[in-house]
Amino acid sequence: MIRIEHVSKAYGAVRVLDDVSLTIPAGGITSIIGANGAGKSTLLSVVARLLPADAGRVTVDGLDVTTTPGPVLARRLSVLRQENAMSVRLTVRELVAFGRFPHSGGRLTAADRGLVDEAIAWFELEGLADRHLDQLSGGQRQRAYVAMVLCQGTDYVLLDEPLNNLDMRHAVQMMRMLRRMTTELGKTVVLVVHDINFASAYSDRIVAMRDGQVVAEGPTAELMEPAVLRKVYDMDVEVHELGGQRVGVFWS
Amino acid sequence: MTGPLTAPAAPQVDPARNAGRRWQVLALLTVLALVAAGLFLTVGVVGSWEFALRMRSRRLAAMVVVGVAVATSTVLFQTVTTNRILTPSIMGFDSLFVLIQTAGVFWLGAATVTGADPRLRFAVDLVALVGFGALLYRTLFGRSQRDLYVLVLIGVVLGTLFSSLTLLASRLIDPNEFLTLQDLLFASFNGVDPQLLTLSAVIVVLTLVGTLRLLPRLDVVALGRETAIGLGVEHRRVVNLALLAVAVLVAVSTALVGPITFLGLLVANLARQVLGTHRHAWTVPGASLLAVIALVGGQLVLEQVFGFATSLSIVVNFVGGIVFIALLTRESRL
Fold first, then answer.
1. Scanning every residue of chain A, which has its alpha carbon at the shortest distance from the alpha carbon of B273?
2. Whole-number average pLDDT of chain A
């Protein structure tokens, strides 16, 4: 369980997070939605201790993210940010193997190697394992990064816009894999996502943010309501039931 | 873009064979370094062998100490800045050294500076350079962790400022004193004080031992701050320790023989290129060996071919630059 208590964060005079309190239960996919600048990525960064909060406290299974030693937390919680430009040239296998760093400290055991192979197989990257990241398409690279995060073997996985730069097919593929990670491996996945229909189709819970505050949260079905979406995005979104999914039509 | 199904088959590389190849490269570099050292010690000896060997081995030792210091500091610096073009010399280190020497000659006179106890001069240089480095890095990295461009900008501006002050002072001083000053400013292994050499070697070895434990974590730091933190590395701590090591290593080598950090850019990138990895356990020894080869080989050419008619930096940069460009064009990308 991720518990966020009264977290605030300001960049200069701009308050990006304004006294946010939120509990994300263990298990399943939780999507964080909201307009640009609502504070979604900042919240994710604070939870992943990439950014220090100005006030408040975040605990993951009772571990305070600011005081828990890095390696201990890195065995419990992994994170993938949006931009992952790297100055070093790595093959897919080398990148995925870095996921074992919190466990191995850089010296891979036979068991670690097995887990690296498993993560590569999970994301169907076997044929690309020895290629350099700069030789891959955006979608392949994104899968390689998520494979690294999976290889880290943490109960909690935080992803900042994992669907960025992915076409429909690869976006769906990615969401299915994240889904499988929760059902087959029992992970808790928290992601920031822009497309409300991806959030609707694949997540168990939705957290909606606006102006640095959580304006609504709950099971997906409760959140996919025109009234709620109007409050979040300040625009009218029709919601239709289509093939058992709630679909927001926002191209009016 | 090609999808996963249509992608051309990747060349299969066996990791064990990779490591084997890297050992071969390191072994080859070691042999080259030893050959260069052997040639340096023995070619063209006239008169007393004992005297020649004693003088030459001292210079050789200085080159090894400086080579290792410059190579290691550049590799570490590029890792913590996640940039493969930045070097400590771009950050104004060399020009600060030049400024200190010039200021000394300007205010105290050439006679006082050259006549002073070399240990005192070494100590002053060392303290000033480490102090400068620590201050620069601490303020820059302390304020914001990711402002690489601000860091570069400030480094370049400071470098230019130091150079301009040097230029101003050197215009104002007596022409005779200026000649003495110029001697101080060229990187030279000829007049290295044996006591300072021992002291420098001890400092470099201690610093290397200290950084040894950091190497695996530096592999992760090279992935960028956020990835490193996500993987449980205490980024700020590792970066601070690495920068401290960089400041000490650069200061030692510069104070010992003068501005020589130009070498770092070349050997750090060359090492990554020939070893095909960015892992510090490989690149630090690889770059160090390359630096020793470049310095000893360069000095050999300088002494035996040109009869000291040019400077070491010109020889090393000319040959190294050609090798580097050749490697780049062959592989077409870094």
1. A89
2. 91
